[in-house]
Amino acid sequence: MIEFQHVFKSYGRGRNILADINFRIEPGEFIFVSGPSGAGKSTLLKLIGGLEPPSRGSITVNNQRIDKMPPRARPYLRRAVGVILQDTHLLYDRSAMLNVTLPLTVMGLDNRTASNRARAALEKVGLLGKEDLKPIELSGGEQQRLAIARAIVNRPSILIVDEPTANLDHETAQRIMDVFRDFNRVGVTTLIASHDLSLMANYATRTLLIEAGRFSDFPGVAA
Amino acid sequence: MNRLLRHHRYALLVAVRRLLAQPFSSLANILVIALTLAIPILAASILISAQPVARQVSVSPEVTLFLKHDATLASAEKTAQRLRADYPSQIESVRITPRAEAYAALRKDPNWSDALATLPDNPLPDAVIITLKEIPDMAASTANLIKDWKTWDDVDLVQHDSAWVRRLEAILHFARIGLGLLAVGVALVVLATVFNTVRLQALTQREEIAVARLVGATEAFVRRPFLYLGALTGGVAGLAAVVIAAGALSPLNSALARLANTYGTHLQLQLPDAVSLLLSVLVVAILGALAARWSVTRHTRF
Predict the structure, then answer these.
(1) Average pLDDT over residues A50-75
(2) Which residues of A fall below an 8 Å CB-CB distance to B?
(3) For the purposes of burial, counting CB atoms within 10 Å of the CB of B22, is it exposed (0-12), middle (13-18) or buried (19 or more)?
(4) CATH number for the domain formed by residue range(s) B62-161
(5) Predicted ipTM?
(6) Structural domain boundaries in chain B
(7) What pLDDT digit, counting tens, does each position of B60-84 carry?
(8) Alpha carbon of B207: minimum distance to chain A alpha carbons (Å)
(9) What is the mean pLDDT of chain B?
(10) Does B4 touch chain A if contact means CB atoms closer than 8 Å?
(11) Are strands B62-67 and B127-132 parallel, antiparallel or unpaired?
(12) Closest by Cβ to B216, choosing from A72, A91, A103
């Protein structure tokens, strides 16, 4: 469960990026966050992922108040939330396998377990057989899928994704969205920030629209 | 427990990988620390080798009265008694070294035996050795006593023996303080070098740190490889410093041996004992880790 109550976010003394945001997401929902560039979509996802604290208001994720969470506790929340940012943040000097095992290494899993789980994650995104390749040797779509494999390898209960299909052709974008849909079907709460209307038309069951830091809640067309 | 050990193993491997990823830069840093550290190790070697020389000789203030060659042993006894009776507050003890005893001791010394063999008889006088009490204004008091004793009938020569030993002790004391200051200087070099190395590493590993945080790494997890990097740099540099110092002692010792031979003696510089060397390597490794922690805390706030 994710709940925002009167959440504000600003940087320094600047204007509010997000102002008085209120919503609640139930476990297992598949939600799009949409709005024009600079509206605050990425900021919203970072707040959910505990990557940044709110300026005001309360945020509850998996029954934990992020706004009251001490900084040293946030890494443990991040392990339960898979984050895929617009820039995939892959480690280009390491193999696909090592990129995917990183979250498991962080959790302190032994090599064999980490390796087995990484292979399973790579298989789910269709990259099995390419585990020894470095990200630079993969296509843009494959890099995006590698980032997905890394995000889901520690079996998060929430997946937040920022512009997953930007710069990808339509067919690759569809395949990646199908991957997210498959995860959602096994109970992973999924939030996707996107302004691709065709994707929303095909996949959204609910859309949070952000404009100039304020926000509206629409039911989606896909069910 | 296993999880913690796995984290440490991972951190160690990452640190080694980062060191090997920039071999020339790593080597340069290690060499800077090692060469700096080799200087106090060599200085300590010189001090350790010089200390026994000072310790072999008494540092208590001693004055020797050499009696005239024609004075008898009975005169020496009489002089000793007079000293004990007249200067009880200034003299700690008085002993006599008869000329025969001194001659016998000197003949046992191979440096003197040949020379003494050419002489027709014993050229040494009887000697009365006086150990003075440590009192305030010792220098002036001793000078006055020597002045008095020189006027005594049977006394030929008065020699104040311990002055040079005291000077040597003072020099060694000065050198020990200098060595302490040098050690502080080396510690600062280690701190500065490792701090800067880790700063550069933190900047180049910015993306890796950001990704690790993204997937749930704690700050301890992020910092640990840097601590190992600092400790490894310090530890390897410490070991290299011992090797460099040992290598430098070899030519120094052969030069010193030639010099000592001209004085008819044998001197050799030696490294501090293994425990001290191991301890110094450990201290440098800990300093490296501390500098790394300081640097990584400052340079990974993003």
Answers:
(1) 90
(2) 51, 72, 75-79, 83, 85, 89-91, 102-103, 105-110, 150, 154
(3) middle
(4) 3.30.70.3040
(5) 0.84
(6) 2-56+166-299, 62-161
(7) 678 899 999 888 889 999 999 999 9
(8) 7
(9) 86
(10) yes
(11) antiparallel
(12) A103
